[in-house]
Amino acid sequence: MQVTFAFYCVIAYLLVITVVGIYYGKKVKTQEDYSVAGRSLPTPILIGTLMATWMGAGTVLGGPAASGYQYGLMAAIAFSMGSPVGQFVLSFVAKKIRRMNAQTVPEVIEKVYGSLARVLATVIIMLAYIGIVAYQYKGVGLILNSILGVPENIGTLIAFGVIVVTALFGGLYSVAYTDFLSCCMMMAGLFIGVPMAISMAGGWSWVAANIPPGHLGFGSISFPQLLGFFFPVFFYVMGDQNMYQRFFAAKDEKTAMQSGIGWMIGCTATYFFVAAAAIAARALYPNINAAQSFVHLATHGMPTIIGGICVAAITAFIVTTANSFLLSVGVNMSWDVYARFVNPDAPTEKKLFVSRASVLGLGILAYVVIQYYPELLILQQYTYTMYGAAITPALLAAVMFPERITPLGGVVSIFTGGAVTIAWETAKTAGWAVAKTYPPVLIAAPLAILALIIFRKNGKK
After folding, report:
1. For the segment 47-74, what is each residue's pLDDT rounded down to a tens digit?
2. Within a domain: residue 405?
3. The model's pTM
4. Does 421 reside within a domain?
5. pLDDT digits over 402-414, tens only?
6. Which parts of the chain span the membrane according to its record (predicted)?
7. Would 441 be classed as within a structural domain?
8. In the chain, how many domains are there?
């Protein structure tokens, strides 16, 4: 009965956010409306959309949920803490970000590093975001498998259809307000449901007594692996285009900074509850799929109504995250490629058409990717590393120290971060011991930063 109720909650909530999304989508009249909501979002809506976009499948199925269940509490904390630490830094840059009045990250990068850097940044963002959208598909597939027994491949296909179709109606107006609803639902489910589940299991002392030895500490994970959890998220969050677009969409600079701080506080609280849920699930259900731990706890270890709300909110988070990333790369194609290099004088209607066509094409490509790269936690770490190493160093330098860097340094930094990530992952696949021992972020990100330093204006080479 509880699983059936959760299913109906999922269907009802998806219908609600679809209707709300279509309603707010009617506000889209220009390219700026579509990409940055007319630069009009107030603080509560901005906090909600920042949280909902950032916390998708990577939070409730990968990240702290899967790592906490599989490796232990410290792994969940290491994965989680990269986010609030990065958010703290980004919050104090939010005013400068809003001041730039841009629409995309490559647009910001071009202002400092030139058109070649804009092209490279666009390519890197597309590679990373396709991977992120892919594991959102996988996330919905896992949920449908957990609560209904639907085969994962069928659930993933259903997710592909729903996410792509709803994204086509997109625009940040509709995405932001549906994100806010998703965020409110998730907070209610988490803050009530997780404590109730732990209490129903016998309390935290019972949970601690029924998990593997060392699971409340570092467990079986090594220190380099811990760094491999922390740094990809840390670098990625400070350069994520979705976050920058939301800061661009703030109604003013003060709203941008306040929303950044609220986003950090909300995510920190959420990670704590998700990690606790993963540990409780390990004690109660020691033989389930790590990625399904949180969903399984919601459907089997919480009261029916609260569990149903939790599962519905988890699904909504995943869908809204996927919509956001598809919208973002669609804007990249129309604004950073088509309007910048192909047809600079294109009317708004043409740009919107290109955006939506790009959403469809890239959505299909993401579905193909997940068929060949099915391990969600591994895919999440790879995409975070790819983006964080290639984009974040150059982007932060462009926002914070534009007078001290050079176009050559930016181009070399972006290329180095992306190329080294791909090379390191290839070496790991080939069985190289050093590549298996040290995560790619520990190599790619420092080299990308080094390129900016070597080619800086003061003493540049």
Report:
1. 999 998 888 777 877 778 888 888 888 8
2. no
3. 0.82
4. no
5. 888 999 999 999 9
6. 6-24, 45-65, 71-94, 115-137, 157-176, 188-209, 221-239, 260-285, 305-331, 352-370, 382-401, 408-425, 437-455
7. no
8. 1
